[in-house]
Amino acid sequence: NAGVTQTPKFQVLKTGQSMTLQCAQDMNHEYMSWYRQDPGMGLRLIHYSVGAGITDQGEVPNGYNVSRSTTEDFPLRLLSAAPSQTSVYFCASRRGAGDGSYNEQFFGPGTRLTVL
Amino acid sequence: AQSVTQPDIHITVSEGASLELRCNYSYGATPYLFWYVQSPGQGLQLLLKYFSGDTLVQGIKGFEAEFKRSQSSFNLRKPSVHWSDAAEYFCAVGPSTGGGNKLTFGTGTQLKVEL
Question: How far apart are the CA of A18 and the nearest CA of chain B, in angstroms?
């Protein structure tokens, strides 16, 4: 298994440009999430999905869109990039737990985005 | 809402010395607790997790953590640190009381190991 993969690894955008960060997992996990990591702030949840066709907002969703058309893929779209979106973005996935427990999240290697 | 506090932003230890990284959480029920490690330029790797049962949990790379409900703590320990342990460590608690996929992370502790 490749686990969670993310592309690209690095990206530089100009203010106002749009782009899509790709995320894919081959573990058949129901849950997928996008986090951003900024110095001194840990990881903050942007959007998440509990299954194909179902998405919801996290704590910092503004400026980002997501969709989940398949179990494997969960792309993150920046509609009009701003310097405040300069960050490292991590995608994560986990298996659902029908018994009410909580399974660990697996993280991708990250995308380092700079917005000029 | 749940929260996680890692009071030490930076910690420096000598190779071979013992290590304890602190983590305090706020959560309305019995939490699921995690420690992740992030090496420079890498993603997050799970070190260990606590769901229930024995409050002392063993993880990979010789790490362990102890869940103390009375202190709302889940401190990470290692008896003898190796230079390769230099990394950033994150404590996390979940899931959110609203359900879904929400893990709440602390702000991280950067570990430096002196040779």
Answer: 24
